[in-house]
Amino acid sequence: xNRIRPSRLLMRTGLAALLGLATASAEARxxxxxxxxxxxSYNILLGGLTIGRFKLDTIVDRSEYTVTVRGSTSGVSRFxxxxxxxxxxxxxxxxxxxxxxxxxxxxxENGRMSSNVNMRMNAGNIVSVAALPPLMKKADRVPILPxxxxxxxxxxxxxxxxxxxxxxxxxxxxxxxVFDGWQRFDVKLFYKSTAEVRGENGSYSGPVTVCGAxxxxxxxxxxxxxxxxxMEQNKDLEVWFAPVEELGVLMPFRMQIGTExxxxxxxxxxxxxxxxxxxxxxx
Length: 283
Hints:
Layout: H1 6-13, E1 32-46, E2 49-61, E3 64-73, E4 83-94, E5 97-109, E6 112-122, E7 125-132, E8 174-179, E9 184-197, E10 206-219, H2 226-232, E11 237-244, E12 249-259, E13 262-279
Antiparallel strand pairs: 1-2, 1-13, 2-3, 3-4, 4-5, 5-6, 6-7, 8-9, 9-10, 10-11, 11-12, 12-13
Keywords: Signal
Organism: Kaistia dalseonensis
Signal peptide: 1-28
């Protein structure tokens, strides 16, 4: 049975898919400008066994945001490879929309580069993209067309949901357009429930919104592959969103991904927001 590569783990951590974003038209928001950060640490477990960890740092400076993820996986079982990953995204928040500008991914497996993506965007439209390794030419691969590179989100920008805590359920019941450098897919979110979490040592405690998710491949993929078919039929996709009041956004607190060898869970062990807001100037 194939081992789970760290690049796939880290991509799906930010993946895909499980990460939602409000894609509705910009709506009126309180006339305050958030400034601050979120520091979060996550454990990655497969079948209850810890196989990796990563740290997520989000900074919002007025309307500009930066998200950085650094993590690693460990070959503690025959299903997991040793690897590290760095992902970074930046852009601008406009009302309830995110407008990404840059996305970078670099992962290694057993000390060697396994994947690299450099993507530049203008308000969610791809200006340039370089992804290694390149997609192999296959007769059954669905081609990526120009229309697949417009109005998209990179996997990390999709982690920020610019909604306030009084409308948390709105993080669900929407479709998220994602391009990761190789493939264009949608993640369809739907509301499941509201839950309570309890953090320690200053970490977030309170309500979270639980969203189910479905993966819909659109381009760059090979529909005949079992892995693609598995993900499209996967009903074990879930993300919990928690409010970061200091930033006026929601962010993932917990994620769940069904794999061929069990349930992969990503759970925050630390989730702490810091910051302040300032009054926006009158127009």
